[in-house]
């Protein structure tokens, strides 16, 4: 019984050393520890991307049968994720406290108008762009930004 207790004590010490640590186990013997960690982090990045697609971008599951539709759907999801990440990065670089969702919510308020009276040619324009919307355009580095009225 004394021998078993010693073994349990050694296992306890080993478990305490590993407490709070993430242990990565792989079946690929030719990867260095650095490569294993890099691949694990890229997997976590991919999973984060799927969470963003489902939550922030709100892309719902769509069931396709035809291969070209499956590829098109996957491509659109990928493009949406890239646009989201570029927006997030540019907002951060501009020191904006807005998330991509909040930035888009601001930009959604901008409307294009077209008014025609009787047989006259229609008059087109956009709603007034406020200061916050202008800052979002500047942070995103968009071309042809709407002008804020003076």
Provide a descriptive summary of the structure in words.
The protein has two domains: 14-55; 64-111 and 126-141, no CATH class. Helix content is 57%, strand content 5%. It is built from five helices and two strands, in the order H-H-H-H-E-E-H. The chain has helices at residues 2-18, 33-54, 67-93, 100-108, 131-140, and strands at residues 112-115, 123-126. The protein has a two-stranded antiparallel sheet.
Short structural summary:
The chain has 150 residues and is mainly alpha-helical. 57% of the residues lie in helices and 5% in strands.
Give the tally of β-strands: 2
Run of helices and strands: HHHHEEH
Pick out the low-confidence regions: none
Report Rg. 27 Å
Percent of sequence in beta strands? 5-15%
Number of H/I helices? 5
Question: Strands of the biggest beta sheet: in what spatial order?
Answer: 1-2
* Total count of domains: 2
Helix content: 55-70%
Mean pLDDT: 83
The N- to C-terminal Cα distance equals 87 Å
Structural class: mainly alpha
Describe the global form. elongated
> What multimeric state do the chains show?
single chain
């Amino acid at each position: 019984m004394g021998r078993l207790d010693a073994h349990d004590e050694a296992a306890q010490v080993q478990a305490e050393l590993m407490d709070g640590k993430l242990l990565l186990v792989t079946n690929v013997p030719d990867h260095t520890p650095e490569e294993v960690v890099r691949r694990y982090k890229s997997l976590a990045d991919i999973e984060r991307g799927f969470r963003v697609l489902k939550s922030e971008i709100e892309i719902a599951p769509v069931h396709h049968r035809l291969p070209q539709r499956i590829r098109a759907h996957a491509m659109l999801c990928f493009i949406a994720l890239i646009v989201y990440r570029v927006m997030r990065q540019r907002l951060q670089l501009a020191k904006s406290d807005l998330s991509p969702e909040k930035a888009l919510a601001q930009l959604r308020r901008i409307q294009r108008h077209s008014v025609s009276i009787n047989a006259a040619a229609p008059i087109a324009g956009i709603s007034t762009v406020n200061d916050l919307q202008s800052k979002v355009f500047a942070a995103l580095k968009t071309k042809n930004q709407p002008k804020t009225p003076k």
